């Protein structure tokens, strides 16, 4: 098995188990950032170990920065897709009440909001405004939207982490001789 896939599978599985444990313990009721921070740490370790294992193998010729970055980004891609799929399953089937609660909070706020001319630029009635807020909330707080956001966020952050870790590993004395 390729190192990029191996470490992405291992650390995404650890992240999934950690998220379920945090959810069961009630740590995610008000703030989901502890799980996201954990996921980012797992992503960094996955990238590092995949790069380290790939660079540690006996290579016939030295690698370039772009070749090493490609290895790192493969690990990011696998990890991101797995976590996006898990995010969809999590919000669709496991913690589906979270989305309903967020929609209900937004609807309560919309009902209490006083429509002023500055806020009501489309000249909507109160009922039309509440209906538009409901539609928007159902779009924003859906499992597919969160899965898409998760995929994009991990890809962007993973690209930055990959560039930095690739540079650090290439500058380390252990791998300097195998780098162009």
Could you walk me through the main structural features you see in this protein, from its secondary elements to its overall organization?
By secondary structure, the chain is mainly α. Helix content is 78%, strand content 0%. The protein contains 7 helices and no strands. It has helices at residues 3-24, 33-56, 65-94, 96-112, 126-140, 143-171, 173-176.
In short:
This protein has helices at residues 3-24, 33-56, 65-94, 96-112, 126-140, 143-171, 173-176.
> How does the overall form come out from the CA principal axes?
elongated
Helix-strand sequence: HHHHHHH
**Alpha carbon gyration radius:** 22 Å
**Total helical elements:** 7
Largest sheet: none
**What level of helicity do the residues show?**
over 70%
Which structural category fits the helices and strands? Answer: mainly alpha
Strand content: under 5%
Mean pLDDT: 87
Q: Low-confidence parts, pLDDT < 50 over ≥5 residues?
A: none
- Amino-to-carboxy terminus distance: 26 Å
Number of strands: 0
């Amino acid at each position: 098995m390729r190192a990029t896939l191996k470490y992405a599978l291992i650390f995404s599985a650890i992240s999934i188990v950690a998220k379920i444990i945090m959810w069961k313990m009630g740590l995610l009721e008000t703030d989901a950032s502890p799980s996201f921070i954990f996921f980012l740490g797992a992503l960094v370790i996955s990238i590092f170990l995949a790069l380290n294992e790939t660079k540690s193998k006996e290579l016939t010729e030295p690698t370039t920065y772009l070749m090493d970055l490609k290895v790192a980004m493969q690990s990011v891609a696998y990890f991101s897709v797995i976590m996006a799929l898990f995010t969809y399953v999590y919000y669709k089937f496991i913690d589906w009440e979270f989305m309903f609660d967020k929609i209900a909070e937004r609807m309560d706020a919309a009902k209490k909001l006083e429509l002023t001319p500055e806020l009501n630029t489309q000249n909507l009635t109160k009922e039309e405004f509440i209906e538009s807020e409901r539609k928007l909330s159902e779009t924003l707080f859906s499992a597919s939207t969160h899965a898409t956001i998760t995929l994009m966020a991990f890809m962007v952050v993973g690209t930055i982490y990959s560039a930095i870790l690739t540079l650090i590993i290439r500058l380390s004395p252990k791998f300097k001789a195998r780098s162009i």
